Amino acid sequence: MQKTQEIINRLNSYGKRKKPFLFLIDFEGNNPLIFETDDDNSILWQTPEKSNFEKREISNRLNDWNTKPISFENYKKGYEVIQNHIHNGDTYLLNFTQETKVESNLILEEIFHLSSSAYKIFLKDKFVCFSPEIFVQIKDAVISSFPMKGTIDASIENAKELILNDSKELAEHNTIVDLIRNDLSLVSENVTVKKFRYLERIKTSHRDLWQVSSKITGNLPNNYSEHIGDIIYTMLPAGSISGAPKKKTIEIIQDVEKYTRGFYTGVFCYFDGIDLDSCVLIRYIENQTGNLIYKSGGGITYKSDAKSEYDEMLKKVYVPIT
Fold first, then answer.
1. What predicted TM-score, i.e. pTM, was given to this entire model?
2. For 173, which of 24, 149, 216, 270 could close a Cys bridge (C-beta 3.0–4.6 Å)?
3. Structural domains in the chain, sorted by start
4. Mean pLDDT rounded to a whole number for the chain
C-alpha cells in the first residue's frame, strides 16, 4: 500500500508540473513502471497520435504460427467453477483468460514492428502487445472510455447482425458499460454513454474480426492533471478485463485461472503534459524463458456456452500482420 501511494504521489507530481511520462502497470498491481523520457529504448510504444521509435523494415515475414492451447477439458474445469460462482451470486460477469504456447519464426521485436494496431508496446525481452482497446483518454478535461465486449469472425455470413443481436453478447456488453459508467463516476461528473455498441473491423494474419465497443464520457475539473495518479489508480484494473462486481470477481479470477497474468490485462498510459492516452494490454505475447506465451480470454456470464467461449479465446490468439 505504501508503494502504491508513492507511485500515485509521483504521478500527481508529474501532472501538477505538466511533466510528460509513460506509465505501465500489471493486472495484479505489483509492478508499476514509470518512464520519464520518450527515448528510453527499453520500451518501444505507439499510440494513434505518437510513438517513440522510427519505423524499421523487417526482412523476415510471418511464415510459422503454431499454437498449443490448454485443452477444452481443462478449460471447462475452470469454466464450471466460474458458473458455480455466477449461480451463487458471487459474480455475474467474469473475464476468464488462459495461456497458449506459440511457436513462430518471428521474435517479439519483429512481431512488434510488423504488426499494425492503434496501440503497440514492446517491453524489451518481456512482452509485445498490439492492443485495439483504449483504457481511458483525457482531452480538454473530458475523460472517455471505450470498453470492448463482443468478438466475431468477420467472414461468417451476416456476422455484424449476429453479434449485435446475440442476447448473451448484449447482456455482457450492458454489464461492462454499467461497470465503466460506475468507474468513471468515481473520478468525473456528468457521465454519459455517447455511443452504444458500435463495430470496428480488426485485421489479423488469419482472419478479420468484428469487435463491439461503446463510448462513455465524463467531465473532469480543469486541474485534473494534479490528481492524475489518483484518477488512474481509482479505475484499475480495467473493468472490461476483470468483471462485475469488480472486487469479488478479481478474487475469483486469481483463484480459478491458476497462473499469473502479469502485464497482460494491465494498462499502458502516456501523458504528454496536457492530455492522457492509454490502452488495456490485450492481444499480448510474453517471453517466458525463451518460450512465446500468448494470453487471451473472454467474458463469462450465465448465458455463456463453454465451447463457444473456448473457441472465442482461441480466435484471439493472432497477430495483426497482413
1. 0.91
2. 149
3. 2-143+220-234+247-315 (3.60.120.10)
4. 93
